[in-house]
UniProtKB/TrEMBL annotation:
<dbReference type="Pfam" id="PF08478">
    <property type="entry name" value="POTRA_1"/>
</dbReference>
<dbReference type="InterPro" id="IPR034746">
    <property type="entry name" value="POTRA"/>
</dbReference>
<feature type="domain" description="POTRA">
    <location>
        <begin position="44"/>
        <end position="112"/>
    </location>
</feature>
<dbReference type="InterPro" id="IPR026580">
    <property type="entry name" value="DivIB"/>
</dbReference>
<keyword id="KW-1003">Cell membrane</keyword>
<keyword id="KW-0131">Cell cycle</keyword>
<dbReference type="GO" id="GO:0051301">
    <property type="term" value="P:cell division"/>
</dbReference>
<feature type="transmembrane region" description="Helical">
    <location>
        <begin position="21"/>
        <end position="39"/>
    </location>
</feature>
<dbReference type="InterPro" id="IPR013685">
    <property type="entry name" value="POTRA_FtsQ_type"/>
</dbReference>
<keyword id="KW-0472">Membrane</keyword>
<comment type="function">
    <text>Cell division protein that may be involved in stabilizing or promoting the assembly of the division complex.</text>
</comment>
<dbReference type="InterPro" id="IPR050487">
    <property type="entry name" value="FtsQ_DivIB"/>
</dbReference>
<keyword id="KW-0132">Cell division</keyword>
<comment type="similarity">
    <text>Belongs to the FtsQ/DivIB family. DivIB subfamily.</text>
</comment>
<keyword id="KW-1133">Transmembrane helix</keyword>
<protein>
    <recommendedName>
        <fullName>Cell division protein DivIB</fullName>
    </recommendedName>
</protein>
<keyword id="KW-0812">Transmembrane</keyword>
Length: 250
């Protein structure tokens, strides 16, 4: 009797592969369904928007400029895009956006500092920022050591340059300046006149102010009130007192 070997049955591998593929497709469909449900739910929406550090910009203005809104997609918010949009405001120097899941967007604002004040045609006091922007303020926000700008047109390019120069000068070097008015000439189109609280009258130029202000303070600290010129050369002439005038008349 001969031995007959039966063939070994092979596993149905293709069926297993097909089964795994179907399982993977179902899993992906399930994940996609969960994603759709999640992004349509309130958990994926912006629920709170906080602006911090803003003094001269209203929350409404910041919201409008940033493009943020409650109910918007939380994960669609681009930090860099929002920050770039806010920097277009002439009051905002820096903006930092933080996202806190679920639904909270916090924006830290750093505004340009106030370097001077001016009174508008309606008699309202405005703060002039280092960017040259003019913003409304209340009386509680007034810093008495800042100068008042008088006679400046909003379109004057040297006004913005003056504000930028004032921002780079330490407060202690400008605290005695009470008023700054434009006084242009052909030689110095950016020439200005300063009036100090210690009763000095100063002639200089916007482009020279930063470099000359130390000389101004040296004269103020050591001399009697008078006229100071800080242009190509520096000079000081005291005001003529009544006694000197009487002696001259005699």
């Amino acid at each position: 009797m001969s031995n007959t070997r039966l063939p070994v049955l092979q596993e149905d591998k293709p069926k297993k592969k097909r089964s795994r593929k179907v399982t993977a497709i179902l899993l992906l469909l399930f994940i996609a369904l969960l994603g759709v449900i999640f992004f349509r739910s309130s958990a994926s929406r912006i629920t709170d928007i906080h602006f911090q550090g803003s003094k001269y910009s209203t929350p409404e203005e910041l919201l409008r400029q940033s493009g943020l809104r409650k109910g918007g997609q939380f994960f669609a918010v681009s930090r860099s895009k929002v920050e770039k949009s806010l920097l277009e405001l002439n009051t905002v120097q820096e903006a930092t956006v933080d996202k806190h899941f679920p639904g909270v967007v916090s924006v830290q604002i750093k505004e340009f500092p106030a370097v001077a004040y001016e009174i508008d045609p309606n008699g309202s006091l405005k703060a002039i920022l280092s960017s040259g922007a003019s913003v409304s303020i209340d009386e509680s926000g007034i810093a008495v050591e800042k100068p008042i700008l008088t006679g400046w047109k909003a379109s004057d390019p040297y006004k913005a340059k003056l504000c930028g120069a004032l921002a780079e000068i330490p407060n202690e070097l400008t605290s005695d300046i009470s008023e700054i008015v434009p006084s242009p000439t052909l030689s110095f189109p950016d020439r200005i006149k300063l009036y100090t609280r210690s009763h000095f009258e100063v002639t200089t130029a916007v482009s020279l102010l930063k470099d000359k202000v130390e000389y101004l303070n040296q004269v103020i600290e050591t001399k009697e009130p008078g006229m100071i010129t800080m242009l190509e050369a520096d000079s000081y002439v005291p005001f003529q007192t009544d006694s000197v005038q009487e002696d001259a008349n005699e």
